[in-house]
Specification:
By secondary structure, this protein is α+β, with helices and mostly antiparallel strands. 42% of the residues lie in helices and 19% in strands. It folds into 2 domains: 3-78, Arc Repressor Mutant, subunit A; 85-134, 2-Layer Sandwich (Dna Ligase, domain 1). It is built from 6 helices and 6 strands, in the order H-H-E-H-H-E-E-E-E-H-E-H. A 3-stranded antiparallel sheet has the order 1-3-2. The chain has a 3-stranded mixed sheet with strand order 5-4-6, with no helix packed on it. Strand 4 (85-89) and strand 5 (95-98) form a beta hairpin. It is globular and about 45 Å long.
């Protein structure tokens, strides 16, 4: 999604487009992998409270999803991106999006039915070493 479309969607939902909000949305839009609040703080001049409040607003409105790669660092990306999974290099910490041909929706339905569990979403991450670190 391009930046103007993302901002228009926020406006349509009743959110004001403040300079900080616009910068955060722009940074997330340009990012090729999920980014943490610390990364946002490094790139945007704003106080910590403002950044976390903006992330919270965008999460609560459903524009962001929160991802944890098991290192207790919360990362964020737009919720409206095509469903994908991540390859995480344990050496250099690079993150690569990967699409899988396998559709897990049937498996989710089976789990939901068998376990009486409502699946909201799922995450699947692969941990290993990237081509740069393997050589």
């Amino acid at each position: 999604m391009d930046l103007n479309t993302a901002l228009q969607e926020l406006r349509s939902s009743g959110l004001r487009i403040t300079p900080i909000r616009k910068q955060i949305v722009s940074l997330l839009n340009e990012s090729v992998s999920p980014i943490s609040a610390i990364d946002i703080l490094k790139n945007i001049k704003a106080n910590k409270t403002t950044i976390y409040r903006e992330i919270s607003v965008l999460l609560s409105k459903g524009y962001l999803i929160e991802i944890d790669f098991g290192d207790r660092i919360k990362r964020y990306e737009f919720a409206n991106r095509d469903h994908h999974h991540h390859l995480i290099c344990i050496m250099c910490k690079s993150v690569t999006d990967v699409d899988l041909a396998d559709d897990f929706s049937e498996k989710e339905k089976l789990i939901a039915s068998r376990e009486k569990f409502k699946v909201m979403r799922h995450n699947l991450e692969f941990f290993g070493t990237c081509r740069n670190c393997t050589n």
